[in-house]
Every structure is written in structure tokens, then in C-alpha cells.
Amino acid sequence: xxxxxxxxxxxxxxxxxxxxxxxxxxxxxxxxxxxxxxxxxxxxxxxxxxxxxxxxxxxxxxxxxxxxxxxxxxxxxxxxxxxxxxxxxxxxxxxxxxxxxxxxx
Length: 105
Fold this sequence. Notes:
Elements: E1 7-12, E2 17-24, E3 27-34, H1 37-47, H2 68-73, H3 76-79, H4 84-91
Antiparallel strand pairs: 1-2, 2-3
């Protein structure tokens, strides 16, 4: 919950998310920043794994780790319940740093 003050700065130490909210009359501007270098490094390491994202019994596949800022930047990724928009995004060059698999999306 955000309380109306002149300025509010919040920091979530778990994922290093910073949120700054500034008010201008009845309007407000939110600035959101997230440290993603850990996510990118983890994804890069996962792409080296021979399992290509599959668990050992191949019952599940971890294909991507996407920072929450991408969902703020691209709300269509969560609006499309069919998953087609997400699939197109994951296959794009723009999503390459977020993929944990080398092939087969």
C-alpha cells in the first residue's frame, strides 16, 4: 500500500527493487528500478546445462526467468491468457537474456 505523502522511496532488499512515487496534485508518477544482473547471470549459467531446462525426469521445463520490470513494460504478456504473446516474446531476440534454454521454444 502506498500512502499519500510528498515523496516515498521503497526498497525491497530481496530483489533490489526500488520504487519512487512523486505526487503532483491528484496525479502521481511511479519510477520503478530493479537490479537484474543476478537474474541474467543465472540465466546464462542455465543455458550451459545439457538438460536444456528440463528436470531430470523431464516432467517440467524451466524456460525463462523474466524480471518483473518486463511485465510492467509489456503488460500484454500477462493480458493474453492463451500464452501466445508470451511465446512470441520468448522466441524474440529481445527476450534472449531471459531465456534459460538454448533451443526448442
